[in-house]
Amino acid sequence: MKDIKHFIDGEFVGSTSGKAFDNVNPANGQVSSRVHEAGREEVNAAVAAARAAFKGPWRRMTVDQRTEILHKVADGINARFEEFLEAECQDTGKPRSLASHIDIPRGAANFKVFADLIKNVPAESFEMPTPDGTGALNYGIRRPKGVIGVISPWNFPLLLMTWKVGPALACGNTVVVKPSEETPTTTALLGEVMKAAGVPDGVYNVVHGFGGNSAGAFLTEHPDVDAFTFTGETGTGETIMKAAAKGVRQVSLELGGKNAGIVFADCDMDKAIEGTLRSVFANCGQVCLGTERVYVERSIFDEFVSRLKAGAESLVIGPPDDETSNFGPLISLKHREKVLSYYQKARDEGATVVTGGGVPDMPAELAHGAWVQPTIWTGLKDDSPVVTEEIFGPCCHIRPFDSEAEAVELANSLPYGLASAIWTENVTRAHRVAAQVEAGIVWVNSWFLRDLRTSFGGSKQSGIGREGGVHSLEFYTELKNICIKL
Ligand SMILES: NC(=O)c1ccc[n+]([C@@H]2O[C@H](COP(=O)([O-])OP(=O)(O)OC[C@H]3O[C@@H](n4cnc5c(N)ncnc54)[C@H](O)[C@@H]3O)[C@@H](O)[C@H]2O)c1
Ligand SMILES: O=C/C=C/C=C(\O)C(=O)O
């Protein structure tokens, strides 16, 4: 069986403790590899390698030299596209059609975009008068922050990890990555690509393991990491923020959500149905930007519910190698327990189960997979946990509204604020509502349409800070002002 090791200082190394855990394919429940679990020893070695590499040639390269290497990393991912695709599908069970359109291409794009961006960032400068009349000139320069701890989740493993590693390296930092224990493989594969592309040893390091009392905690507790960038649950974000407080290290947190879709009667119904179907069910609902609350103007409520039900029931449930499948399993049986507990809660609270609500019948070879039915409810109260808590599964609750003000109030009623999708053909309304919705990202008549130059992140308990475009470059650099008296 394949062994997945840490990648430290340019070499794949095992854990000295001999501790390892199973990597399970959630489509069929089979163990696909054994993953070494890092102890403090491996985390210390990875941070030391990253620190040494930070003092080495990487940050002193010209921007052209560094970005040329990052382009080679992107090309290296594309050259081994099929291997990355296979690994991502095996770790997550997601359909190949999804991973080949989103996960792997974005893994490569995250290096190209930030390599190009770094070449075009202007510096600020201010001239100022002085009492003696000679004046002074202020100008800003940016320097890499140092060793960045990158902690990433399992839902888009390569995409979300490179979304941080790409800009961090473009800015001249070095990184220690702790990928999710559920999805270690593409992070490890990337080590091979980095090496082949000429990234100096120690610039990109990977330690595998769990969160609490394991590699994740050891990394965030390590005093020689300068900043942390994290994507994952809000509760984990709080824990990481506490660890980062020791030594006053900066954090960028991309956290959970309970995103609202708002569908007005003046929408293009075909577009609203197609977009909402994707936003609820893509990646088996395991998308931080996904919609779990849908608010629909009352006059079109019944039509919308019946069309979304028809769409959900037409999804093709199946494993990655089934080319017709567009709906895979959840990440694990443990996560399925959580999702099914909300399915039960919805029934207990008297929801109308429009469709789904359970586990689909699967053929014997997939019976141990983490399959769950696409599910739609109506009729729950606004304060039901099913409506207020992030489930992170393929499900939504649909509720009617009577006025624009009511829709905005409902959308803003929770402590989360990541993303929202608004469906209307009235351009004035679109601007008005988009400006009022409390979320870091608002889509109008679309969903998950991404321009990587734009800001990305959540408000309220959905995160701290923004990444994307120059915002990533701001996080991964220190801005220094130099004042020269003339
Ligand atoms: N806002 C965004 O951009 C965004 C994007 C994707 C996913 N998410 C969120 O991520 C969650 C799903 O991902 P998940 O279940 O992997 O999240 P998670 O918080 O359970 O785990 C994320 C990572 O943190 C690590 N971790 C866990 N406990 C830790 C600790 N105490 N110290 C250090 N590291 C620790 C995990 O091992 C994993 O690598 C959802 O809440 C989703 O909304 C947010
Ligand atoms: O599940 C969350 C998906 C996040 C997507 C991004 O971070 C991105 O597109 O850059």
TrEMBL record:
Pfam family, one: Aldedh
Residues annotated as domain Aldehyde dehydrogenase: 13-482
Record: active site: E254
Keyword NAD: yes
Matches recorded under PROSITE patterns: ALDEHYDE_DEHYDR_CYS, ALDEHYDE_DEHYDR_GLU
Entry's EC annotation: 1.2.1.85
Swiss-Prot/TrEMBL keywords: NAD, Oxidoreductase
GO MF term list: oxidoreductase activity, acting on the aldehyde or oxo group of donors, NAD or NADP as acceptor
Highest taxon in the source lineage: Bacteria
Recorded family membership: Belongs to the aldehyde dehydrogenase family.
NCBIfam families membership: OH_muco_semi_DH
Protein name, UniProt field: 2-hydroxymuconic semialdehyde dehydrogenase
Organism: Halopseudomonas pelagia
